[in-house]
Amino acid sequence: MKYKGYAYIYTIGCQMNVYDSEKLGAILKSYGFEKTEDMDIADIIVCNTCSIRHKAEEKAFSFLGRFARIKKKKPHLITVMAGCVAQQEGEKAFERVPHLDMVLGTQAFSRFGQHIDALKSGGQKIVDTNDAPMIYEALPDTTCFNENKISKFVTIMQGCDNFCTYCVVPYVRGRERSRRPENIVEEITLLARSGVREVTLLGQNVNSYGLKEGMIPFPQLLAKINDIKGIQRIRFATSHPKDLSEDLMHAIRDLDKVCNHLHLPVQSGANTILKKMNRGYTRETYIHKISELKKLCPQIALSTDIIVGFPSESRTDFYDTMNLLREIEFDSIFAFAYSDRSSAPAAKFSNQIDEKEKLDRLNQLLELQETYTIKKNTALVGTILDILVEGESTKKRDGFEPGFKKQMKGRSQSNKIVHFPSGHVNIGDMIKIRIENAYPHSLWGHPLGV
Ligand code: 5AD
Ligand code: SF4
């Protein structure tokens, strides 16, 4: 059916959810709904949720909770909880959000439209947590939402087979499965034609892309995407250290569009904890892989994810992680306090760490990392970087420099944000910038030849 109305979509969580929300938006568009940024005029509100940590889950419930009063005034408003929390909670979501109309699990998107039809024709509340794997190709394409974006996420595989003991992903997104290479190439070709210049390929473990299905492995997929006209940069996330292959290291070195940056989550620097996490590698093998990579790509930027306060993590274990940061000197890290997830095995592990202690460790870790982030950024002062222009800078320095009308921002291959004054560069341009100042979260410089 076709409807008239506005749709508001609120996304919590990972990059994969950003991609999924665009798919939900494309479905809504095909049913006649216009996207809006104004919740007050919305006729359908979708919260695409994340259950990776307790905080993300709470954010979803508190967002959806806000609509109880609005629904009373506007009974035709449809409220939808989609994604990972929906998959995990099912019916139970109605206990906490009684006014909710639909619970749409991670594999149920292809039935979203028919569920809207059922609600519109006066049907009961809907719960769809059927976990038969969803096929992205069955959903409408999302190029309608490019809105001058030059960088887009593309999910190339779903689910996960690794079963890290802290993680909900295998339970809310199911087993690992990869999309066919020709479908991925077709989607990115369409994106390139609509003006996209950079793609980030997404999967829980892109290193094992295609292996289960006997399709081309990830480095070969990268080579195919490298050939797509119009695409200038390729990024990918996330890599699993146990599966990081030499072929992938060579692909990073040899394929000109693949960015010189690797996000390789280590999670902990202590072998006892890595074992309990079921990560499948040791501190030593992680360090060895990084040193092999640095031999091939000496300038590579590195980032990682770390969990502090995993059950039974001792002070010594934590110092092993601190020392790993000192040894590797990552460009940036994402660090989290361990969050108990009832569906993940670690929830039953003994010796849970006190919340205050977890936060204390987190702060120590972040403080240490800041010194390396600044060190890495400062080392770039005086160099010339290729910057893909993303848009106008919201972080304005006091006033504009004489001769420049605007301040713009872009990103380096190594994923650093660079602000610069500009007279006439456009979004999507690739320009050279001489770096003059380094800050903890960004760089500042001037375009060459201007
Ligand atoms: N608690 C804290 N952090 C977690 N992550 C995954 N599960 C948990 C959890 N239960 C972190 C990991 C992962 C990142 C996406 O989120 O570091 O790499
Ligand atoms: Fe969150 Fe994981 Fe679901 Fe992404 S896949 S939304 S990180 S729980």
Detailed description of the structure:
The protein is of the alpha/beta class. The protein has four domains: 5-128, Rossmann fold, CATH 3.40.50; 148-259, Transcription Regulator spoIIAA (2-Layer Sandwich); 262-379, Transcription Regulator spoIIAA, CATH 3.30.750.200; 384-447, OB fold (Dihydrolipoamide Acetyltransferase, E2P) (Beta Barrel), CATH 2.40.50. It has helices spanning 15-30, 54-65, 67-73, 84-89, 93-96, 112-120, 169-173, 181-193, 218-226, 246-254, 271-276, 283-296, 315-328, 355-378; strands at residues 5-11, 33-35, 44-49, 78-83, 102-104, 126-128, 151-155, 157-158, 177-178, 198-202, 233-237, 261-263, 301-308, 332-337, 384-392, 406-411, 417-422, 430-438, 443-447. It has a six-stranded parallel sheet with strand order 2-1-3-4-5-6, sandwiched between helices. The chain has a five-stranded mixed barrel with strand order 15-16-17-19-18. Strand 18 (430-438) and strand 19 form a beta hairpin. The mean pLDDT is 95. 5'-deoxyadenosine (5AD) binds at residues 52-53, 166-167, 265, 267, 305, 307, 336, 338-339, 341. Iron/sulfur cluster binds at residues 13-14, 16-17, 50-52, 83-84, 168-169, 172-173.
